[in-house]
């Protein structure tokens, strides 16, 4: 009799253990952010680069030769005020068709979240770090401008008022004044992109779009004839970029 009771207890414990394992599997989900790019609704890939084929809000014709940008701090917020932040960051490289997706290195709990967000660039604390992969990618910002890393490198050519092709370097960084040994920072120019509320029940992909045209039009209509190069040491230009960037990203769908 005692032997039967012992076997019964072992069976119960095994069943409960298996149930807990199943619950653990069900209560965790892998998260992926997938980035696509368009120009006012027309899909853009690196196949469209190096050709004058886009027209910005100012009416200037232009090409894209390089586009890459950094996203970090993917964060999930719960109704009780707690949050889960995914580790890592991602350098989206449209030019080389690399890192167009970012998958969480660890799963998160399933459930309802009041908001999901990511940061364009690095916040000031993360920007003070040292990242060997970003160093190798020549992503650094000169020390005279505060050091740290770019948020975006967007390069191309445009047709100027002399009807000639001219290069532009639309590079977003932390806005810095007084370049030199002691630069000052008038305001933050990284920003959070809110994707809204979501209920996670299984592995989930967020399909995120960048409308590249927005960098030139909302709320500041960008005149490349005036602002085309040497924008990194121009704090006012960096603030204009920050303002335009707030409308660049949108959530297309969730799978």
TrEMBL record:
Domain of life: Bacteria
Pfam families cross-referenced by the UniProt entry: MbnP
Record-linked InterPro entries: MbnP-like_dom
Sorted UniProt keywords: Signal
PROSITE patterns: PROKAR_LIPOPROTEIN
Domain spans labelled Copper-binding protein MbnP-like: 29-228
Protein name (database record): Copper-binding protein MbnP-like domain-containing protein
Signal sequence range: 1-19
């Amino acid at each position: 009799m005692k032997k039967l009771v012992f076997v019964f207890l072992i069976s119960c414990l095994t069943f409960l253990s298996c149930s807990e394992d199943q619950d653990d599997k069900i209560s965790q989900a892998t998260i992926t952010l997938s980035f696509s790019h368009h120009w006012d609704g027309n899909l853009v890939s690196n196949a469209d680069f190096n050709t004058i084929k886009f027209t910005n809000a100012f009416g200037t014709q232009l090409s894209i030769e390089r586009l890459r940008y950094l996203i970090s701090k993917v964060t999930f917020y719960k109704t009780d005020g707690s949050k889960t932040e995914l580790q890592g960051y991602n350098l989206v490289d449209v030019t080389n068709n690399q890192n167009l997706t970012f998958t969480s290195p660890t799963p998160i709990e399933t459930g309802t979240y009041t908001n999901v967000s990511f940061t364009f660039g690095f916040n000031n604390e993360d920007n003070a770090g040292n990242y060997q992969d970003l160093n190798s990618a020549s992503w650094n910002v000169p020390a005279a401008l505060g050091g740290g890393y770019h948020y975006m490198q967007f390069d191309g050519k445009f047709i100027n008022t002399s009807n000639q092709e001219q290069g532009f370097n639309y590079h977003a960084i932390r806005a810095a004044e007084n370049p030199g040994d002691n630069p000052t920072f008038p305001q933050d120019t990284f920003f959070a992109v809110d994707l809204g509320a979501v209920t996670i029940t299984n592995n989930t992909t967020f399909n995120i779009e960048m409308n590249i045209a927005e960098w030139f039009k909302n709320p500041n209509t960008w005149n490349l004839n005036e602002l085309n190069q040497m924008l990194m040491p121009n704090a006012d230009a960096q603030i204009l970029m920050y303002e335009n960037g707030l409308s660049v990203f949108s959530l297309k769908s969730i799978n």
